[in-house]
Amino acid sequence: MARTEHHPTGLIHYNPRLSFRGYTLFTAQMNNAFLIDPKGRFVHRWQHERGITNAELLPNGNLLALTMPSPEVQGQRGLNGQAAASVELDWDNNILWEYNDPWIHHDQKRLANGNTLLLRWEPMPRRLIKRISGGYNATGDDPKHMLGDAVLEVTPTGSIARKWRSWEHLDPDIDVICPLDDRREWTHANSIDTAPNGDWVISFRRISTIIRVSPKRGEIKWRFNDESVRHQHDARFISSNRATFFDNGVHRKGIEYSRAVEISTRSKKIVWSYMDNPPFTLYTLMGGSVERLPNGNTLICETSKGHFLEVTQDGKVVWEYINPMFSTNPRLGGRMNMVFKVHRYSSGYPGLNGRKLKPDNLANLNQLYGPEV
């Protein structure tokens, strides 16, 4: 899908008979999170002065999100997905909880016990760095310095209940950095989720690998790595024997394209996928998400174009929307409407009980960006 300044944005298509009705949550313009109704009309907005990215609506109606990175931090500049804090905002944008750490990145997960899982970059032991294969040393990089990924389980009071370091469990002989990526970091975790039994599910971009970890013992219980999948995002166990993720297809052999994928966790074979026709018209270098909806449809986010689509099991597009909010990213440059992830919540979701979700609540936004209905 080519995009010019004349390309339509907002609601592109809606089939109310086949779509899963609900409210879609996304972040845009660096300091906003929005809920839109099925017709693409804005019904609620959160704002935070430190920025909002990768937001999720909790069952209590609060918003869990990462902030934008601190401009003062030098150590991880150039590494996508940085954040300065994880925050919980109430419906009226008041901060109820925050955890500040300039080295957290990409994703978070609120657990049933009230703790929060966070991804964090940490310097790796120098003795291990020379054993890691792949990648290249970019100009100006220190070949003796490399970042690795850690998982923090943070309590509501901000203490660390559990910490897991990837380099203590991964294998340098197996987990090789893509040769087209630099060696500033080994794995580049980009999502953290939990399996039905509470195991952690982590996606590593640079080694194109998804793992399942026992939180108590720290051991890797399951791993997925397939040559047909490259630099994936948003890995989720949707049942005890099924997982979904967004296969970006970056550095794929042949023509690069992105797709939504479901695999059997037992056979590690693809049992369902969605790609565009022709395949290369659905593609994003970074980000991307896949969410299986209660009616069996799948909600997909194509990050680079701010493009959301809902598809049926047989690949029919029943809802399509393009983020109309554009901004300029000082690092990436250019005018863009990128969105890292999207989520869909039914009208019966506990976090929406008693909330006023009428389009006229945000009349100005709907006048500026909303579709004609």
Describe this structure in words.
- By secondary structure, the protein is an all-beta fold.
- Helices cover 3% and strands 41% of the residues.
- It is built from 2 helices and 29 strands.
- The protein has helices at residues 126-129, 363-369, and strands at 10-14, 23-28, 32-36, 42-47, 53-57, 63-66, 85-89, 95-100, 104-110, 116-123, 134-136, 147-154, 160-165, 177-182, 189-194, 200-204, 209-213, 220-224, 233-239, 242-247, 259-264, 270-274, 289-292, 298-302, 307-311, 317-322, 327-328, 335-336, 343-345.
- Strands 1-26-25-24-23 form a 5-stranded antiparallel sheet, with no helix packed on it.
- β16 and β17 (209-213) form a beta hairpin.
- The mean pLDDT is 93.
Secondary-structure blueprint:
Layout: E1 10-14, E2 23-28, E3 32-36, E4 42-47, E5 53-57, E6 63-66, E7 85-89, E8 95-100, E9 104-110, E10 116-123, H1 126-129, E11 134-136, E12 147-154, E13 160-165, E14 177-182, E15 189-194, E16 200-204, E17 209-213, E18 220-224, E19 233-239, E20 242-247, E21 259-264, E22 270-274, E23 289-292, E24 298-302, E25 307-311, E26 317-322, E27 327-328, E28 335-336, E29 343-345, H2 363-369
Parallel strand pairs: 11-14
Antiparallel strand pairs: 1-26, 2-3, 2-29, 3-4, 5-6, 6-7, 7-8, 9-10, 10-12, 12-13, 15-16, 16-17, 17-18, 19-20, 20-21, 21-22, 23-24, 24-25, 25-26, 27-28
